[in-house]
Amino acid sequence: MPPRKAPRRTPVKRRKSAARSKQNQLPVSLLFVIVLILLIGGFMFLRLSGEYSETPQPIAETTAEKPLKTPDPKHADVLSAPPLPEKKENEPAKQPEPEVKIIEKTIEKTIEVEKPIEVISLPNAVKLFMFDKRLDQDSITIKNSTVNLESDSEKNAKGLETDLKKYLTENNLTITSEKPLKVKDTHGEYTLTFSVKPKPAPKKEPVATKKEPVKKQDKPVVRKEPVKPAVKYTAKMALVIDDCGYSVPLAHKLASLKYPVTFAVIPYTPYGRETAKIAKDSGNTLFIHYPMQPKSYPEFDPGKGAIFLNMPEALIASITRANMQYFGMTLDGANNHTGSAFTESEEKMTEALTYIKQYTPRFLDSYTSGSSKAFSACRKLGMKCAVNSTFLDNEEPGLVTGSDKQNHVHGQLVAAAKKALSNGSTIAIGHLRNDTVAALPYSLAEIEKMGVKIVPVTDLMY
What we know:
By secondary structure, this protein is of the alpha/beta class.
């Protein structure tokens, strides 16, 4: 019999211990993954905290003791940018907040300086008051330091006084006394009085008297054509004499000239109608010298029948009708008396010429202002128009003697004739004065010798 083998106990024990060791040990791959995750997490933590490859500095250390290092330009955007917020799933995108702009404004502060109050003189204030009330300027009488206003009745006089007091106070004039009414301006103190116009005396029936034989009326003067000199005319000139109506002898003297002239007569003058008749009877041209507001108003008053810038169109129409009917005869044309302010308004000139056109088709712009719109308004209305180019007797200060003034008029006429020779024609305006009329016969004869023909102004209006 073969020998009996002993049982193997040792191998069995080893298997059990190996199985137990396998259960207690982790796999190597799992350990590698855990280490890798820890390294990556530490790296990301250091990078996001800005301390990558840098040794952290103590908090108490100051920049004076050890300056901070300049960050690497490559990582400047990462280091300076704030951490991005985590975006949750299904969360709507946030709209960018609007950019806030700060706008600086400069506020300018204007400091107003008080201007001294202008005080109008009392006489001028009264004239303006009467004008605003549409009252007749002839009812004012100014003598030394007394101003009298005339009314139709006692009731109207009291009402006028009350309104005038209020008007003067509004214009910064000082009332120093109520009875009598005294007012002070920069020139002195004035006393204002109010009176009632006397009622006209009743007409007496005429006493029968013997009839006197009727005198034969003088035949109108027929103008004789001047003897034409042996001169070839190459230009034309018209002569207009303004401010007619104050002197009958000068009007006759002007009418006796052998040259055609234009009488420009101011309405409501002492001899306006008589002068107009002299002009017509002598075969000359008759114009109304229409008063219009000057820039110097109220220091210079253009007189009765004047039109002003603040007048409504209806009033201008009424005044124009009265001015034209004053003459009682056909007028050949019109030109402005003063009017340096009125003629600068094309609107007001259009209103005035619209009604002037109903009585005469012609208007001459006296050209008292370099900004006059009168000619333009005249043309637009289809009238015959012209513009003055020379004033003959607006003398410079210092011309006192008659001979000096006549020499001045002669020089102006010669200058006007030269304009005519250059332009073909011209219009000159003078005034009804002794020295002006005295200079005309000789001067006009000399101008004709220059080849300039003296013609009526209507021949040069188109």
